[in-house]
Amino acid sequence: MKSPISHRAEVLDHGTRVITGPGATFGTDALLLARFVQPRRQDPAADLCSGCGIVALAWHDAGHRGDCTAVEIDPAASALCGASVAANGPDAAHIHPVLADLRRYACSGPEKGRYAVAACNPPYFTGGCRSTDPRRAAARHADLCTMADVAACAARLLRSGGRLALCQRPEQMAAVFAALCAAGLEPKRIQLVRSAQDKAPWLFLLEAQKGRSPGLRWEPDLLVRGGVPYGPGRT
After folding, report:
1. For residue 131, what are the contacts with CB-CB under 8 A and spacing of at least 6?
2. What is the H or E stretch that residue 167 is in?
3. Percent of the chain whose predicted confidence (pLDDT) is above 90
4. Could you tell me which residues are beta bridge partners of residue 217?
5. DSSP code of 232?
6. Rounded CA gap, 67 and 95, in Å?
7. CA-to-CA distance for 159 and 116, rounded, in angstroms?
8. 33 and 18 in contact (C-beta within 8 Å)?
9. Rounded distance, CA 131 to CA 21, Å?
10. pLDDT tens, 185-226?
11. C-alpha to C-alpha distance for 122 and 145, rounded to whole angstroms
């Protein structure tokens, strides 16, 4: 499959191709998220705010073959996910790009309560400077997708005990915990990501479970240099 000149194909560790384009690329945070919580081989899984589908495709690259729904509000980004699925052949047909607004997704119907795992790499910013590119602004700022929206959607999708993984900036930690707990998703495991041991964390990874009792486990800090994990906390 030949991609348009503005598109490019990235290749993951085990050969999975990820087609990206302007406004729909991925970074280290998405790859760390996909590694932090992985579905079992046949688990039904959901990739929320999927963009080009990187988390769903990274799970596939690691061996996941259960139904995987990639929910994205941007038509161009969702189309890139579909192109990646096609580029990887029939083996990737278990990934289903869905063009939808997660604020209204799975409010009724068979999707409710069927997923074992969900992940979300949400918009990080609630204020500050905004990009003049509307697509980039929507991806980075929480105008169309707040943490409460993510938590509510995950609570609808997940079965009892189902796991939600997400990544976010450390300054948003209190708001993330509050939104998850309000939706019945209990934070269970957390890991800080740093560029060096003596540097402030620039990201945290969090796993929550639906309908479980309190009890949070801190993982060793994950050190990332040049996009590559190193040190004792690497996954």
Report:
1. 137, 140
2. strand 158-168
3. 82
4. 189
5. T
6. 6
7. 6
8. no
9. 17
10. 999 999 999 999 999 999 999 999 999 999 999 999 999 988
11. 7
Within 10 A of 157 (CB to CB), how many other CB atoms are there? 27
Determine the angle formed by the axes of helices 28-36 and 54-61, rounding to 10 degrees. Answer: 50
Q: In the chain, where are the structural domains located?
A: 8-230
Encode pLDDT of 51-97 as tens digits: 999 999 999 999 999 999 999 999 999 999 999 999 999 999 999 99
Average pLDDT rounded to a whole number, residues 172-194: 98
- Helices of type H across the chain: 28-36, 54-61, 75-87, 134-140, 147-157, 173-182
CATH 3.40.50.150 for domain 8-230:
yes
Q: CA of 134: how far to CAs of 14, 24, 107, 130, 190, in Å?
A: 34, 12, 27, 9, 32
Using left for φ > 0, alpha for ψ between -120 and 50, and beta otherwise, residue 148 falls in: alpha
What's the chain's Rg over C-alpha atoms? 17
Angle between helices 147-157 and 173-182 (to 10 degrees): 40
